[in-house]
Amino acid sequence: MSKQTEYKLVLEVIERLSSSLLIGYQESSNVTQTVADIALLSRTKSSIARKREVISRLNSSLIDDVIKNELLSLLEKRLENKWFKRFVPRTNQKAKTGRFFRKFIRNLAIGDSPWTPSTMLDIGCGEGTLAKHILESFQRNSLALEGRTYAAIDIVDKNVSKVSQDLGTFPINLDVRQGNAFEYDLANFGKQDLIIASHVFYWANDIESIMGNVCNLLSDNGLAIIIHDSPESDQNQFRINFRATVNPHTTSTVERILNSKGMTHFNYIIESELIFPNNTIELKENLLKTVNGEIDINDHADLKYLKYLVEFVVQRPLEELAEEGIAQEYLGQLCSLLQEQNNRLILRSSVQVVASNKCGIDLSERLGNSEFRNSVNVLAKRIEHPQPSVPSGGFITKISSDTRGVNGPSSIDK
Questions:
Q1: What single string gives the DSSP state of each residue in 251-287?
Q2: Model pTM?
Q3: At residue 150, what are phi and psi to the nearest 5 degrees?
Q4: 186-190, 199-203, 404-408 — which one is most confidently predicted on average?
Q5: For tag attachment on the chain, is the N or C end more exposed, with fewer CB atoms within 10 Å?
Q6: Is there a contact between 288 and 327 (Cβ–Cβ < 8 Å)?
Q7: Cβ count within 10 A of residue 105
Q8: Which residue from 349, 354, 369 is spatially nearest to 97, judged by alpha carbons?
Q9: In sequence order, what are the beta bridge partners of 119?
Q10: Are the beta carbons of 89 and 397 closer than 8 angstroms?
Q11: What is the per-residue pLDDT for 21?
């Protein structure tokens, strides 16, 4: 990244916060050194710990605490985005989750006491992939969308714009808002028949508060579907063992909260796969060398891609693990498991379906029925053939042409 781009990034952050601060910043005699310090934030070789240190010692007369927090938030989001972009093309998790919703909605819409939601709220909707699966589920099951409302909230402006545009093709009332769902007054959306939160709550500092809001928002016959990694998920085991920044105990926390509130809830499971390239084990030692500075990762596209992928699994930068002396241990355990499991990790998502306290007996009995549970659970099937290895420098091209299970069924989604 060029110096000019680095400076622009910093100034854009400050400008977004306050134009008056921007003027004072540009006129300051110490601006050169301060910008030089902030420029370190975007250099690949600077560890997250180093970047946090730079933020903490920025000249307080130029950069106040609000801006420091904004810079740190921006830093973390940029890294999370890099991780997620490497994760999505290598997994069929979204397709498997979509399959769960298709079966869930279809099976509740039939029978003597059919249930279909008229109002829906998607908390942390992302780019709207799951939302499309859900709305398509209505259409596939000949359920009219007219008259229904799909509301959503996400913290990222671009996601809000994309969801509004992509879902605009469906004949349904849309209400998509930008905001932090953990701080936003969700009551402004009104009562909801269906509330969805997929892989969101492990970011919450106060899960009890957000769960309380969700339970209060349910209509008399409303359901909330909370999805997150189960304790048995391969990647969640790594997050527990190596102290991830996200909460790997979300399942048990939500379970405890629901029990304390006396909420009726039912547990389901979604299994999916995260596929690694066949030569991951061969690249492990070189990956460690990039962290130690022996190899410039910017010269090796395959290593750079793999680095972000293994960081997504543990939800921590490898540099941090190296500073704690546990990077080699983590990569060793990861590669050992990949060798046992045909270059894949099994991602087990816990699905907790919460019923309103005023929910009808018929709906509760259907949700708790073992036959219904078996009909909607989505389990992984064994992959018979390993994924091909990727030559050095060609990883990104290969991945982009080998997208599996993101928008629909594939060879690992059957």
A1: HHHHHHHHHHHT-EEEEEEEEEEEEPPTTHHHHHHHH
A2: 0.74
A3: -115, 110
A4: 186-190
A5: C
A6: yes
A7: 22
A8: 349
A9: 149
A10: no
A11: 37
